[in-house]
Specification:
Radius of gyration: 15 Å
Number of domains: 1
Strand order of the largest sheet: 1-2-3-4-5-6-8-7
Distance between the termini: 17 Å
Low-confidence stretches: none
Bound molecules: coenzyme A
Strand content: 35-45%
Helix content: 25-40%
Number of helices: 4
Structural class: alpha+beta
Number of strands: 8
CATH class: Alpha Beta
């Protein structure tokens, strides 16, 4: 998948995440999360053939996502925007693109897990149309000997925004 998207200020583009991007992706990941994916997690995702895209503006990495496609559903494994670039609508833009792609591949729903404490992301997903469909107990590491629940959210793609 490759796309060029216009914003008020400059041209943004999505392109496949290659191995060459993994150092920069890992740097952003560490800035964005208290419990980041490792470089190896991203490398494994590429090897597994997941749909991984980087969002670029000029030479700079703004964000990225990793999507796993199943028979009839897609599972969002990672969606991140570099902290200085957050609040510009970039997550929404990546959601739009991944939904178009997943729909074109025949997926009928998009699933994700999000930390219960990640209120901002949960609100963004809810405004986008995702519904909470469950809870996975102790899904994420939190602190030594402590774990955090995941909220499971789902979006029927027929009802997704264009
Ligand atoms: C969650 C995350 C991906 C959102 O990215 P973003 O680019 O900042 O989000 P957007 O700018 O597209 O904002 C989407 C919506 O949130 C609103 N928003 C933007 N900044 C906001 C803020 N500071 N507080 C609350 N809402 C905000 C936008 O107005 C927009 O609302 P709308 O959809 O009704 O128009 C980003 O904060 C991030 O990478 N966080 C760290 C990693 C993470 O938690 N990922 C999700 C894991 S499941």
């Amino acid at each position: 998948m490759s796309a060029v998207l216009e914003t008020d200020t400059a041209e943004l583009r999505l392109q496949a995440m290659s191995e060459d991007w993994l150092d920069e992706v890992s740097r952003v990941e560490k800035r964005a999360y208290t419990h980041p994916w490792s470089r190896g997690n991203f490398a494994d995702s590429l090897r597994a053939g997941y749909c991984a895209q980087v969002l670029l503006q000029g030479p700079d990495l703004m964000g990225y996502y990793v999507l796993m496609l199943g028979a009839q559903e897609a599972h969002l494994l990672n969606l991140s925007v570099d902290p200085p670039q957050q609040g510009r609508g970039l997550a929404r833009l990546m959601l739009d693109e991944m939904l178009r792609f997943a729909q074109a591949q025949g997926a009928q729903s998009l699933w994700l897990e999000v930390r219960t404490s990640n209120v901002r992301a949960r609100q963004i997903y809810e405004r986008y149309g995702f519904k909470t469909v469950g809870l996975r107990r102790n899904y994420y590491p939190l602190a030594p000997f402590k774990r955090e629940d995941a909220v499971v959210m789902s979006l029927p793609l027929a009802a997704a925004q264009p």
